[in-house]
Design a protein that fits this description.
With 512 residues, this protein is α/β, with parallel strands linked by helices. The protein folds into 4 domains: 98 residues, Glutaredoxin, CATH 3.40.30.10; 197 residues, NADH-ubiquinone oxidoreductase 51kDa subunit (Rossmann fold), CATH 3.40.50; 91 residues, Ubiquitin-like (UB roll), CATH 3.10.20.600; 94 residues, NADH-ubiquinone oxidoreductase 51kDa subunit, iron-sulphur binding domain (de novo design (two linked rop proteins), Up-down Bundle), CATH 1.20.1440.230. It has 22 helices and 16 strands. The strands form 4 sheets. A 5-stranded mixed β-sheet has the order 2-1-3-4-5. Helix 6 runs parallel beside helix 10 and helix 17 runs antiparallel to helix 18. The longest helix is centred in the C-terminal third of the chain and has 18 residues. The N and C termini lie far apart (60 Å).
Length: 512
């Protein structure tokens, strides 16, 4: 009898020793004469339990973690390969509270299958969405995506169906689908996880997008800091091409970025894809009219495209039955920072911020009180505990001066200095600005200088007023969201944590 065990090859698990655990498992199995097959998967997203090992048993997948190489012999002694009791056992993975309370739409296969097995993908429901799209045809496929209410998961929250229809209606001899995998926001990792754990879902989503819009060529633009995702997507594309899934009506390739945060902005990404320096383009024209190489282009985030196959397979009505208001479906929320249970949690829109941080995340890892939560990356607003009843949806956050963005949730305890965090936002913008527009290029540098004066106690009221005016200029005058969103963290820190800007004078060595 062959026992199948599953160990993630996800970057987070590997960083925590998954490769070493897999090697130790293989050695121990040989030494003990146990017929063991090790399957490297993606991650379930229970990061605090990585490396997580689970084994296929008669009662389902039973998990153990976090496992170190030194734990392997003890696991064999306990006959873990039969689901035996052990201090590291977390029971059936499907019964774990972190998993059981989720509704996994996009991440249903992640952690469960061999990412590079097209047979596993098909066996777990993959390609049913594409089959349905082929059956429906372009118009009905587009209608289904529109009806589902799917919005861009990369941050802007723009309705996917409207974007695709614009591309479909554009007249051109060639159209493109571009997948934005330049995931650069702090506290975000869902794009990487799906590319490393279920790459065929991204490919299937892109093929469906091509069918719906008339595009025949696609590119997935991945940040260079994700070598595992680059390798996995590249190999998956080769497999899909060999299988005939790609290379006939639609084909695609991987392109690797060079580390510029600004290339997460769609027009800068297109400039980079064309071989130029990543700089923002003025709009109009929109990429849907004149994008890559001047052709109509649908630029979508990884999670947006990976969500499409299940919408087609299960129906738009099922998807839009989840969520709240105009924020429909599920959202993969990434819990990070000073949080006890860090990881990926997929759920319908509508949970409160407090539920996510306290009930799901378990509060702070340090054990100290939560003071602030930043949602939406380095340009997201800082929300205090008093706003923990805010529903996790686009409109609720926008109404309070925040943004969902890529759904990264970064938790801070009561030791955080929010004035220092505001300064970091300006510094980050100054470093990452493409330099094309004056408000972003110059305003961010001036912002650092103004906050430095505030931190030194120099004419605090005057400089706070100047900082607020500068934020208004950045918001209204910047060409893209980099400069336009810097006011979110700065103004939210000023609004909700004013005492940090009026503390006793500090030297720059304390705050830089």
């Amino acid at each position: 009898m062959t026992v199948r065990i599953f160990i993630p090859s996800d970057a987070a698990a590997v960083a925590l020793g998954a490769d070493e655990v897999a090697a130790a498992m293989a050695r121990e199995a040989v030494a003990r004469g146990v017929n063991l097959t090790i399957i490297r998967t993606g991650s379930y997203g229970l990061t605090w339990l990585e490396p997580l090992v689970d084994v296929e048993t008669a009662i389902g997948r039973v998990a153990y973690g976090p496992v170190n190489p030194t734990d392997v012999a003890g696991l064999f002694d306990a006959k873990f390969f039969e689901g035996g009791a052990h201090p590291l056992s977390v029971g059936r993975i499907d019964d774990h509270p972190f998993m059981k309370s989720q509704i996994r739409h996009t991440f249903s296969r992640c952690g469960r299958i061999d990412p590079l097995s097209l047979a596993d993908y098909r066996g777990a429901g993959g390609l049913r969405g594409l089959a349905q799209a082929v059956k429906l045809g372009p118009d009905a496929t587009l209608a289904a995506v529109t009806e589902s209410g799917l919005r861009g998961r990369g941050g802007a929250g723009f309705p996917t169906g409207i974007k695709w229809k614009t591309v479909k209606d554009a007249k051109a001899d060639l159209k493109y689908i571009v997948c934005n995998a330049d995931e650069g926001d702090s506290g975000t990792f869902s794009d990487r996880m799906i590319m490393e754990g279920d790459p065929f879902a991204v490919i299937e989503g892109m093929v469906i997008a091509g069918l719906a819009t008339g595009a025949t060529r696609g590119y997935i633009y991945i940040r260079s800091e994700y070598p595992g995702a680059v390798a996995c997507m590249t190999r998956a594309i080769q497999i899909a091409r060999t299988d005939g899934l790609l290379g006939v009506a639609f084909d695609m390739d991987v392109r690797v970025g060079a580390g510029a945060y600004i290339c997460g902005e769609e027009t800068s990404l297109l400039e980079s894809l064309e071989g130029r320096r990543g700089q923002v383009r003025a709009k109009p024209p929109l990429p849907a009219h004149a994008g890559l190489f001047g052709k109509p282009t649908a630029v979508n985030n990884v999670i947006t495209l990976a969500s499409v196959p299940a919408i087609l397979a299960e129906g738009a009505d099922k998807y839009k039955s989840l969520g709240t208001g105009r924020s429909l479906g599920t959202i993969p929320i990434q819990l990070a920072g000073n949080v006890k249970y860090a990881g990926l949690y997929e759920a319908p829109f509508g949970m409160t911020l407090g539920q996510l941080v306290m009930d799901i995340g378990g509060g702070t890892e340090s054990g100290r009180p939560v003071r602030a939560v930043q949602v939406g990356g380095p340009l997201g607003a800082y929300f205090p505990v008093s706003l923990f009843d805010t529903p996790f949806d686009y409109e609720a956050f926008a109404g309070l001066g925040g943004l969902i963005g890529h759904a990264g949730v970064v938790v801070f305890d009561d030791t955080v200095d929010l004035a220092r965090q505001a300064r970091f936002a300006m510094e980050f913008c100054a470093i990452e600005s493409c330099g094309k527009c004056t408000p972003c290029r110059i305003g961010s540098v001036r912002g650092q200088e103004v906050i430095d004066r505030i931190l030194k106690g120099v004419e605090v009221d005057k400089h706070i007023a100047l900082l607020e005016d500068l934020c208004s200029t950045l918001k209204l005058g910047s060409l893209c969201a980099l400069g336009g969103f810097v006011p979110f963290p700065v103004l939210s820190a000023l609004t909700h944590f004013p005492e940090d800007f009026r503390a006793r004078p500090r030297s720059l060595a304390d705050v830089a």
